[in-house]
Amino acid sequence: MKKFLTTAVVVLGVASIAQAGPCHKIPSVETYAHPTLFRSQAQALVDADSVYVTGAKAFKPNFALKVNKKENVLIAAKAKDVLKKVSQKHEDAGLGKMKINAPTMRSEVAAILAEGLDVVTPENYSPYSDINNQYWAKDYIYRVTEKGIMIGYPSGVFKPDQPITKAEVFATVAQLISVEHSQGTPIYAGSEVKFIPTWAEDCTNEVIASGLLKALPDQKGIVENEFLTKEQVAYLVSSLRANWDSLTENSGFADACPASLGSVKVKMLDRISAKHSNIGDAFQAKTTEAATIDGVAFPAGSIVKGKVVAVNRPGIKNPGFVKVKFLTITNGDCVKELPKRVQGVDADITKNPNIIARILGLPFSAAGRVVGVVGRSGGAIVDVAGNGLEQLGDNLSNTFVETACLHPGRGIASFGQGIVTIFKGVFDITKVVVSGTFGVVYELCDDIVYCIVPSCSNNSSLNPDEELTIIF
Fold first, then answer.
1. Which domain holds residue 298?
2. pLDDT at 414 over 50
3. How many domains is the chain built from?
């Protein structure tokens, strides 16, 4: 007997299906956040390259750059990659998943530093008496201690499972960088940084002056808490890695991790946004300064090409996001692939499209979004009704067959299931109608808001003439 499925159920297996595809391909995701009061409707299409989903969460590819927080650009791919690798090591050792928002242990800081700074494994090392060959972070610890990034205790132990305070983390980072800084009580974001002993004030001031802390989540926690979370440490190390060449030039640690491949400064020529872009959309940018890729010099004005690899449409309480990949740089007949691993992307204060452009685009954008909501709602209603009528037919068939086979009890039960199917179908269709109506109103209002006050709209975007620095 076929099961009656509301369209929401279709997406339950999307994540596992996407991950079960060919391992050499990274699935793309286009998630249409259908504004809804109930989140009851969803449709999914899965193939080797793409996962298209309406109204639900879906598997998203790693190693892609994420454009989010409305008009601002935030790149967290490196930090998330580091956390994922370290957490997997932790889990493989039978210790369970790491809680990224919990205070950090010395072993975890060593792991994040080693992964985040690409520190190579040493050929020789002096073992610690409290770390055996099976310890999950053994390799990480020896990598950072061999380079002098962290040190053990004079007694020959490392104390890997001892919590590490934020003052100790700042001291570790401060020795790696060389930045002019103030003296005295550390002040960050206008507030005195708590839990900083006198011996760590100078280190903390240097880390503050470096600007690295601006990349960390939970800015209030940097000031108020005694410990940084694993997530904060990962962001701190990833930010350091992205700015390694400029911050470590005179510190004596410039060779502690592989030198960065360089950076490319570009100005966007096309617009991409969470609301209007689609997976596979190509875009171009133009370099604003000369750049060298794989030993080949590219002058200012060279063309950088990229494509959109994932989209999450904005919806209620969801600004959505766009993920992009930068693919090639071109000057005349000379074309080079850009390095696949991007350490980070910085964006200047982004600009909104001018008011004339927004007004001209409003009628088309609003009409398209409304038609999309109405069309998807209509499709969901047809899907619910079709599945419901099919199951109702099965219920009625079973009622007569089971009664004729002298199983009247089962026949009555099947008839009761048919009644339930009718009411469930009416309920689900009502939800789709209500949420679709609400979605139409929402889309119209959001497009009007974007036209008048873009910063208040749920629309993540990069616009023409906005400048980015791509760091490899």
1. 261-349
2. yes
3. 2
